[in-house]
Amino acid sequence: MTARRVAYALACALAFGVAANAAPAAAQTTIKVVVNDLPITSYDISQRAALLKLTARPPNPVQLATQELIQERLQMQEARRLRINVSDREVDQAFASIAQRVKLTPAQLGQVLSQAGSSAAELKSRLRAQIAWSQVVRMKFRGSGGVSDQDVIAALGAKGQDKDANAHKTVEYDLSQVVFVVPANASAGQKAARQREAEQLRQRFSSCEQGLAFAKGLSAVVVKPLGKKLQSDMPAQMTQVLDGIGVGKLGPAQPGPSGIEMIAVCARREIDSDAAARASIKTELTNEQGNIAARRYLRDLERNAVIEYR
Fold it and tell me: What is the pTM of this model?
């Protein structure tokens, strides 16, 4: 269960109270399971079961708690093998984030967990394992495959969503960049002179066809076609700048890595775009692939582990 789902479940539990979930402390602690020489005690299980009652309300919390703790032992062992260390600060931040979502302080959240028969330490232990395992999975499957455009198109089709059905209006720009090159060792006077030259070009620039051709003939000026760009693919700040530039005009002259830079808006038109739908599907498929890989990875660890029930 992710931290977001835990926060939601806690919020629901708080709305109805937690007294009914409180569990008495175990009179005696015994070892119930050993996972590769790491013990899981009856106290560990009771603490996790109480947490699950509060957040997930499963039909058999003790069984689920036991299985979850076995998996966490394996996940933490693998993290240690790969030299992955989750700091206390990371765990505390995740804990505080959950508290904030349910409108509690971390101390108040700890009190709620204690009243339910669990503890802040138990939730933090769970969060540490989740953070460590996510890092393990990223390390293990970094650079392995990915979601292709064909995958996205197929998924859209499988959901009965074609391009037209998911189209949203966006703006397409045809852009070029004009750079008045300024040497790295140029004096302040030279930089100011180049700035004036750039402003002069901007004032006389009336169309991309003539203006860019003229700019190419100027000394130490580079013209770079940027091609067509979609508004939906750019930061809002950038689109605001572009919308302030008339078609066939140059934008403000700004200092850049190579000199004085300006953007020419050669065309602007509104088109249908399914970019938002594609991005959503791609994220969904990427997460799905990651989850499948993580489950297989964990199954392999369980298959190779020595797990003794007592």
Answer: 0.55
